[in-house]
């Protein structure tokens, strides 16, 4: 018996959502996608990685956020419906891409990808195109549908309009995460008038554009983004936990490379230590699995691995000082050497972490990261790049801000039972 | 060198909290307690167990809630300060008990306690009195302080006033969880004017009482509680996940009792299977550990264990029908037998779950669960029990509401490849 | 040149509204109605009369509220669209009636109607059917349209469904004012999940009914209403201002009846003093006009009129005590007499004010005020009256609560320069 | 009998406030000031003048706002208490100045002051120092206290710290109005983390400064201010109503100057027409009085006065076009002449309105409007001007933005029954 094509659900399903009040699902396709095990797995991956150590409310998951991006996209489509420039046949493409755009994220993606040299965007592609429940559901729409969805998520799709709805400088993804992360952390940034922005979005062949009358709401959104980056996403305490997490993974890999005999084999990680992790291996990973290993590694013989895991779980984080990459050049080898003398491996206990953000930019041809600018539709129908109309946006356009910090275990440096003098020297240099 | 007694922190510490805006810590004692590994462990235990499968926002942890109860208690103390009936020397006792009242909770406590016959209140006592970081910190106040805190949490303390601040029908615990759970789930219930309630709370020898002018705010709080129980806490879908979770633990224990050879030894659970779990064993448990086992058990040989784990992780839950415990009496053995014929072990696949709540009650001497009623202080200084003043509260006082549901895997019953007829019979009886 | 029939506006108009975020107008008809001078006049009539003396935020007007009722009705219609039982041709009828349902309100309606024996419902009818801009706009739809709108507002329309949207125990009017009045006063009552209620409303021939799954949201709404009545609408301080206001109007009328020579003629009021106020006269009245007279009457010779106006403007209100209409029977003539002896006219300075509310009722045939009950549609399609399903609603159904208070100028009674002994007697009786 | 000096109220009084939740009054002095008739009069003067014609929620009054500024000041004082640099004896000075800072505002101050050449700051001084209830209450503190309060409000006080709490670039006044005006209009701007800002405010001899850790909250506040100015305060529709209002007052004055015989004498205005308004005259004025005259002037013989009043009351506003003061130079006399030909007096019907705002500025010696900049206290204790630390603030510092619009009655220009050709010419020039 052939399964009939997807249609509408008999009765609309609703999810209670604190950010958008309700998330509504009418399409069988979407309902089926949500039910796949690859999508349900997002319930076990936090949206903001280690941010919860700084903002205790930030325990929400990517499942949460993905539903939110879907809902915003659905609302954009309600505005587009019937307008010139919008083809209703792209509806399910936009909704599916919105829902699945983060499906390839793994546990603590940022650190994981750095250590194991993988990329969540590639995993997303594999999940959409590979032998998965997600692929089965998408293929039921049409044999080419999974590829179309993957292309939108990867920004290689010829359908630039749909692509810009999911990823551009003002897209459903950002609009959801700014509001959602603000809600769960409780910070007062992250608010902007999304309802207004949705109402002034207009479809064009190349991208979503904004009616000029909505410029101030967009300004407010850009400022929200700016504040969220520096107040929440790049919070130095969060980065301290992230630094430790990265070093745990790095140490475990290094030990494995050296043939270290783990008390309990880290089976879930071996293939990644070897750079051969399969999709199946990847999908088994989540934050519960990762935290399980961190916990048992507390009892490992290796002092570094065990110490870092104790620190991570019990929130004994590294302290930090501002770090000027130029000025400190000469100090660096000296510092590393002093750490070694103090019996602290500088590869793990003296860490530079840099964050940088470019809150908004217009198109700068030839530059590394070309960004599609936000365009306003003026009353006369012409398009105009946002920063030409907005003083505030103009002021921050293209201004990359970078912050360098040096992380280290201050508690060890203050423990004067051993290496008292060398630790004093270090503290003098670090001025702590 | 002797450690100096706890005093005030040089600089107040603040936590950003979405429910109370900020949580402020000035006491070194409180700061030290928060930093203990037993308290940090609460970050790995969700506040609402399996509720997140129904309300995706409900991913917040007991760490979150415990800070909230502390903050509310702190605000009550600001109102009490200087009032007759309040002794400022009990301040740290109240704050410590508030912070630690849930420290003994384990992963998915409700199911865990049912299957392994333990009790989070006993664990709390052991954590406070045993060989733990928490105990060390508390003992630094005075040798008897841990016992005083434990007694308040256990409600055996002679200090009835402080006890009633932490556990009574209107206490800091309930006021926090109603608001917090409403915030994270996004439901519109759970709101009441806490600021008003705090301002009308007054200390008496026996309990916290409420100025009569605040009666309506209290009514609103009681109604919030009523709505939250039936709309959130007892949601039938949440209970379905809870049923499955309980059956997973039960199956694992049963298999272990039978000497089943697990592919990977569930070391974290063995002592609990045997009823011999130590405090150390218990503190190792958290929801990450539990989820780790659920995930690897998906690959176990035992079909029941593996099926239940797959269901839990991928949210393939049991369906339910209303169940009238009297009417169905006769059907019950028949149903069980039909399940067996359909190759579905009724011990795991046919489950009655009952929830009941008594939203408010006054003192009924001799009854099973004697509850301290809420008292209003009238303008003339006399106390009056709440339900005598409030029509609305009177209407629901002492009215226990119970709900029985029967859970089963509808998908299996609809799979007609095998046992077609017997499954049809079952569906006829269940009317599904 | 004939004016073309009303259609859709070229571009939707939006009003920023703090309660519903935005109010959207697409219909030319609605836009024209909002622009009429009779509707704009509602900007000069407060929604909550004298409540602002108690809750300083309650300065919003009936213009505000009327737009809100329109918006909610519009949202209900979006749910109804395409459902059996709803005829899209009634759309403009529902929207117009929603917008205009309060257009006949005058300044401080409650007091005004009591003193001058008029009725805002009659004035609404006259505005809709008489020689007004509103009538002109409505007549442009069809010659019978004004009458249809008036009938809906008056609840005499054969269209019971549309009538129940505007006035029933769960209608757009109440849903707006509970939320709006809560918002502007700042009280924490008045919140309920309107979005949920709207989604479960269903049209039937006789009335709007509610899907059973939405019962708890309706319970919450009923409780909000209950709390708002006693916490806000019947606040004793508000009623004190209302008592004084009523007595000002009564005194002015009485003086006019007696041929009193006002320093400045109260031209706006004469026809109402004589019971002959025309629609034109009525439309000239608003709260600015009323306050103008109150201000100039502060300088009138008549001591009572001038004193009451000073009290009203400077918020020197009457105090109150609880009043038991039965117990005090005998005291009443004595009290009145004592007031006279103390040179305080009891007709103006000793006032009983009673408020009573019936938060919800089902149909009780033959009773004075027959109310259409709220019906739930059960999963089997049958209707069931709300209180039969909800314990909480059942508990308060049909329970009328009445509150009697006695108002008087305590300041005068405490001024012992004259009538010291008689004032002491009064204070003893009143126990103040 | 001598009245005892002011102390604390027996029981704290609270006002329910939607913005700050509760406003608390413990000081008898403050309670007495709120009760004065000059302060109660602020209930009859809207906070945002004609803004309600654009944002219908903006009906709140200066009474509202004044309580809010008092409450914020009280909260700042709670932070200052006990800190070096703060002298608790200035507490009542700060609270009184906060409460009274706007007490001199009249009806629609902006227009009123422009036409009658008065200044609300002078009136405030007169109210504080003159023969008023406010002065009596203040004098009861000490004979010099009224003068001290007036000096703070006028910014001539030697107490620069207290002055900066009430009026500076980050003061209690602005913090209240931004939040309050956002709340009542319903716009999503105007939110910032005031609780955070209050916690990082520190007293110094010269002004309130901000701990550097709170810089981002201050940035957010500055951006809120920027958005509120352009989105709310300078909204072109509001300014259209303001233009008409100004012209009504101007016309009435002009007619009076010409000896015009008003049907009803505008007694409340005569002394202001003549530039001789006394404090007593001024205190009689409020928005009810003003609206009363606007209503009766609708029936005046003078066509301009009557037309403008009809427009104002029924919201038949002027339309506008952008106006470039340079480019249009030559057109201007031509336009004025064409208006005259079209029988439209350009003095009333062709109006340029300019708004300009400087969202933040640092000290620029010698410039017209020297502004006290916001200073951050760095961790090393040094002060640093805000824009040197904040990119965003730096970007908008000192950038005055000005907007010129030309207002005119488009309806008249489109009425082609008379002067068809000249009106066509005007429309061509104005491009409407």
TrEMBL record, chains A, B, C, D:
GO molecular-function term, one example from the UniProt record: dGTPase activity
Entries under InterPro entries matching the protein: dGTPase-like, HD/PDEase_dom, HD_assoc_2, HD_domain
Coiled coil: none
Species classification: Bacteria, Bacillati, Bacillota, Bacilli, Bacillales
Protein name: HD domain-containing protein
GO biological process: dGTP catabolic process
Residue ranges of domain HD in the record: 62-178
Organism: Halalkalibacter suaedae
UniProt-listed SMART domains: HDc
Listed Pfam families: HD, HD_assoc_2
């Amino acid at each position: 018996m052939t399964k009939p094509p997807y249609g509408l659900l008999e009765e609309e399903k609703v999810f209670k959502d604190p950010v958008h009040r309700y998330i509504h699902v009418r399409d069988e396709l979407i309902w089926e996608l949500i039910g796949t095990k690859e999508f349900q797995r997002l319930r076990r991956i936090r949206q903001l990685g280690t941010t919860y150590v700084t903002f205790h409310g930030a325990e929400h998951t990517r499942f949460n956020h993905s539903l939110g991006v879907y809902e915003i996209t659905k609302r954009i489509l309600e505005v587009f419906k019937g307008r010139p420039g919008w083809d209703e046949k792209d509806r399910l493409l936009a909704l599916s891409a919105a829902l699945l755009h983060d499906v390839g994220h793994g546990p603590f993606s940022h650190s994981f990808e750095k250590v194991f040299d993988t990329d969540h965007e590639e995993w997303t592609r594999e999940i959409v195109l590979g032998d998965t429940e997600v692929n089965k559901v998408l293929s039921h729409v049409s044999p080419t549908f999974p590829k179309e969805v993957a292309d939108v998520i990867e920004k290689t799709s010829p359908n630039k309009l749909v692509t810009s709805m999911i990823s551009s400088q003002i897209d459903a993804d950002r609009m959801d995460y700014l509001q959602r992360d603000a809600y769960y952390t409780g910070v007062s940034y992250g608010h902007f008038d999304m309802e207004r922005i949705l109402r002034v979005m207009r479809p064009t062949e190349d991208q979503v554009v904004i009616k000029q009358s909505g410029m101030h709401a967009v300004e407010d959104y850009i400022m929200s983004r700016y504040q969220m980056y520096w107040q929440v996403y790049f919070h130095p305490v969060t980065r301290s936990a992230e630094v430790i997490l990265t070093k745990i993974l790095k140490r475990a890999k290094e030990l494995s490379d050296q043939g270290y005999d783990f008390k309990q084999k880290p089976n879930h990680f071996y293939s990644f230590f070897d750079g051969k992790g399969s999709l199946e291996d990847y999908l088994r990973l989540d934050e519960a699995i990762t935290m399980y290993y961190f916990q048992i590694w507390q009892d490992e013989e290796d002092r570094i691995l065990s110490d870092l895991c104790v620190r991570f779980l019990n929130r004994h984080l590294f302290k930090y000082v501002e770090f000027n990459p130029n000025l400190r050049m000469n100090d660096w080898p000296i510092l590393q050497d002093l750490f070694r003398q103090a019996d602290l491996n500088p590869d793990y206990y003296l860490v530079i972490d840099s964050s940088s953000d470019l809150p908004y930019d217009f198109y700068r041809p030839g530059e590394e990261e070309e960004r599609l600018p936000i365009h306003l539709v003026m009353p006369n129908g012409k398009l105009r790049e946002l920063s030409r109309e907005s003083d505030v946006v103009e002021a921050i356009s293209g201004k990359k801000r970078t912050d360098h910090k040096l992380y280290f275990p201050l508690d060890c440096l203050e423990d004067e039972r051993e290496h008292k003098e060398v630790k004093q020297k270090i503290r003098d240099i670090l001025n702590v």
